Amino acid sequence: MVFKEEPTGGEVMSEEKPKGLLSDWRIRIFILAILLSLVAVQPWYSSDGGFDSNLNYGLDLEGGSWLQVSLQGAVIQADVDEGLTASAIIEKAIGSPVTVKKAVSDSDQSRLSIVLETKGEITQSYLNLLGFSDSSITQRGDTYEITIYTTKQQLISTYLSEEFGSEVVPYATPDGIEYEIRTKADQETVENLLEDVNGFLLTDEDGNKIYREGVRTETRDLTVDILSEKFNALGLRDIPVRTVGDDYILIDFAGVDLTTAKEIAQQPGKFEIRMQVEGNNTRHVLYGDSISSVGIPSQQDGQWYTPFTLSREGAVSLQQVAIETGAVNDPNSHWLYMYLDDEEVYGAPLSPSAASSLRTAPIASWQASTGVDEDSKKQAEQLQIHLRAGALPVNVELVGSGQVDASLGGQFKMQAIIAGLLSMLAVAAVVYRRYGKKQILVPMVATSVSEVLMILGFAAAVGWQLDLPSIAGIIAVIGTGIDHLVIITDEVLYEGKLPPTKVYLSRITRAFSIIFAAAATTIIAMSPLVVMGFGALKGFAITTIVGVLIGVLIARPVYGKVIKEVLQEKGEGQ
To answer: Scanning 43, 331, 353, 356, which has its CA 20 to 30 A from the CA of 231?
Structure first.
């Protein structure tokens, strides 16, 4: 019998190899995020240009110019005499007196039947161009009797549109139909035009006339989208277009002088409609200046579509090309294609009813259908922007402009970098004074630097411009990040040293519960600035939110793991 010595507990423990940091999935994600950030930022140095990167800088850091434009328009609610309004529209178009014989509405007053009489010559195609496609003409000698089937909403929109020479778009609201006049229209002028057709402005519950200068929020946002789309097509993707209040838009042109900025803002996109001839060959039909108005995407019989109206010349041109190419007889072999800056944005054949109608008369009012699903809705909304081809939905007036010298922008950039470095050094000094240990200071500062790098990587990846408010947000993230790292460190160091594993897990869990609560509070506090878009403060809010999320989800859990390992290696454990 041989007796062997039983190994002690300590000897058993010494035989177990502790897992390395790289085996932790959080460490791997952290390293991957750092590498991706470096790839996105792409820092480099050249003897000619000095230090550079893939980061985009805003106006205040790069220099350049800015424009502020005001959206001209008015929103009203009104009522009119239907017969007089219809006669006024046709009278202005043909230049001859028009009398009203009869104006009748159906039982629910949603549909009108108006009979007019004139000695001026008028054709069905002319009525179609005025938007009265549902109409008929009877000629008796030298007198024309016109029967129009329409709505009060259409009459008011058409009448005001013809008088102001601009789009007038009706919107259904809980309080009734609002009419948005998309050009400058003071209250006195509007009331005088309404009086000519026995009309007037409606009043609210307090007896105030329903009239306000400006445009609806939807129109303001559409204008911003069109400007952004326009700059994208010009290769100027990094130009931010943001709203200031309800009726102003601010555009920053970093690195662009003021004269060039004004030329860019006034340059429309090139929109063209072409018709398929044979194979892939197409023939020009019209340009974007022949589109007089573009409606709001809507759904009808399950199909999403974008309505638009052609000018008289545009409608005649489309009819002529459709007849000459044979599209009126075989529409499926002769599709209509739309191009924006020579890029195809839509294509479809004429509907059988449209092809048949074009044989006898031009059509002004069209609908471009896109499909039935949610993607079709988005396509219809995008087509609305394309159809405008850089022509804004409302008239705009330049109310402010300015320029930041490039050297001054470079000075701001250098000052921002110095401010960031000074804040990091100040934080490092305070941390070292508190703990007096390099093994705590180095991981803490390295974590803060990594968070800044990941924020910059995110900005480079999404093409987001860095301006002074964004830099301020990064500095704020450094401060809040250090606060969180101090909480982790204090919880890890139990009475100045690492506690047993069970106690450590309990305390680190408590530390992160505090950190997540603080992060949630910060994100909630900053969210209104992002949603409501208060100018430059939006950049500050986005930077802060992105920085906090990067910190709590990636960097700070890694710091909690690293600091424990470092302190154990330095003999801080039990």
So the answer is: 43
